[in-house]
Amino acid sequence: MWWGYSAPLDLQCEIEEKDDTSKKSLEVLIIGASDARHIVKTLASSYKHSDRNIIYHIIEPTMEQIARSILLLSTCLDKDLGLQEATRYYLEIMGNTLLRPATAKYLAKHSKLLADTVTQTIDCPWLNLEKLKHKDRDQLEWIFKFWERATREGVPIVDYWDRRIRKSLKTRYDYRDGVFDWDYHMILKPRGHMNLTIHEYRFWRNNGIAFTWIEGEPTRSNPTLLNNIVPLGEGFLHYAYLGDITNGPFFTWALNEDKENNVKLRATDIAEREIMRVIHEIRTKEPFCEELVAAHRDQSVLNGIIITEMPSSDIEYESWVKCNKYKKQSVPWISIPNTKVLFHPLSTLELFKNRTEYKEKFDAIWVAHNMTKQLPNVVSSLKKKGHILIELRKYLSELRKEDLDNFTQELKNITQECGLRELKKFHSESHTIATFCNN
After folding, report:
1. pTM score, whole prediction
2. pLDDT tens digit string along 263-284?
3. Largest Cα–Cα distance in the chain?
4. I need a labelling partner for 106 at 20 to 30 A (CA). Which of 85, 201, 352, 415 fits?
5. How far is residue 133's CA from residue 124's CA, in Å, rounded to a whole number?
């Protein structure tokens, strides 16, 4: 729910063909990506393409996912952060139940800023919320305000995580490390994730902490992973953690393995390198120098996690004072003048096939693995010869071979009914993306 299970794509590469390179503007639709990875990757690669205006139309199942996408993209575009600083903030907020104190302070302060952008107190040039209903924007503002307050006051997210594990495993809870080892060695490893170590995976399955570094200990709760946030009086109500507890946030930025590098790196190190690469390229419009990456770490830590013990819960719940309000002149984003990110409510999916304004509107459409039933609603919105990219289920550890076979066949059936042509042979057991063309 909170992250994807396929690598980020440069959408301009997916769109471009020989007769399309002269296009001055592009519109893409992204459905259920759960994070901003495709926008970030496309922005980072823009210097490799002709100058174009690109409008990203984003649809997510929940307002919390919309808020997280805004936060993650905003972190990448924050010019006040150092390169490594922004990289680690991004990864921790995306995938850790607990944050380092520096990351938590940034989250509290930045959530305040983003709440002001929703109310248009502060202008955010790349963000467009005009398609959201007033109640959706109100809820978005509540979410950012809740994050700011919950980061200061603490929420028992590790307890929520443990309850989910207990409910999932039931009588196997006392033998959970064996269950985690089985999922890793018998399912995830054979499917091809070469960088994810058993130590990282097991630690995440136990505590929800995916990315760790020697420079700092995660001690503060990450409230961006909570659901169903609503205001009540002077406070808020929220649901417990409802996200993924079996697969992990390792299958996006950590999938890109450097075949020429013989040093075995953790998934954390690969993800750090890839995020650092895209932030550098967004800022400089130049290729990334590999020497900037801290991949020279002591070999003794490359096959393990850095943090081996959970912090005291007293630290997690320690209350902080309220942060100061952002001043208008401190708006931190770098300029991306050719980019707009336009968020739509989930109900828009039902309008695509009936509204003339959406007829053959998009150059490309990306669809998450759990949103494929929406294909009949959106196929008429794709331009002739446009591409639909569909995320597959290769890295879902709860699925066995027969489940992947069934999903592959169901996807082929639904795309045939929609009149889509398969560009490359695919199977969920071997691939992460299936590509189709609108004839």
Report:
1. 0.91
2. 578 899 899 999 999 999 999 9
3. 61
4. 201
5. 18
